[in-house]
Specification:
mainly beta; Immunoglobulin-like; four-stranded mixed sheet; four-stranded antiparallel sheet; 1 helix; 8 strands; globular; signal; 3-isopropylmalate dehydratase
Length: about 130
């Protein structure tokens, strides 16, 4: 009984040291929107969106995605993903990424297009 009481007192003491979670503080972030709304990429294959070399989204035709990111630089890379569609097997592809410098409170919209070196991002109008 004494052990349980001491354990409970110790646990409560440890919880008092940990600061409470709060939604307040540094809430500055930027919004990055990437769309594949237009038929500029002539493939039915799924396109993978990589942020800082981590797969963050997968897009088919007529889809878009958005990310709430901290301000600062972010590397964006795209590649065709192998999947259910025939002919979507990954081959030799360009591993270049686009570096975007995001600012707090900024909303940026890009669309996926095909350029001379493969898939690329082009700035798009926010439309509102």
């Amino acid at each position: 009984m004494i052990r349980a009481a001491l354990g409970l007192v110790g646990l409560l003491g440890a919880l008092a040291v940990v600061p409470p979670a709060s939604a307040e503080g540094n809430t500055d972030y930027s919004v990055l929107m990437i769309s594949r709304e237009r038929l500029e990429v002539a493939t039915s294959c799924e396109i993978g969106i990589y942020l800082n070399d981590q797969l963050a989204a997968r897009l088919f035709q007529e889809q878009s995605t958005s990310f709430n990111l901290p301000p600062g630089p972010v590397d964006v890379r795209m590649r065709l993903l192998p999947g259910q569609m025939p002919g979507c097997a990954a081959g030799v592809e360009d591993q270049r990424s686009t570096r975007l410098n995001l600012k707090a409170g900024q909303i940026s919209k890009y669309r996926i297009a095909t350029g001379p070196h493969g898939l690329e991002l082009r700035q798009a109008n926010l439309g509102y």
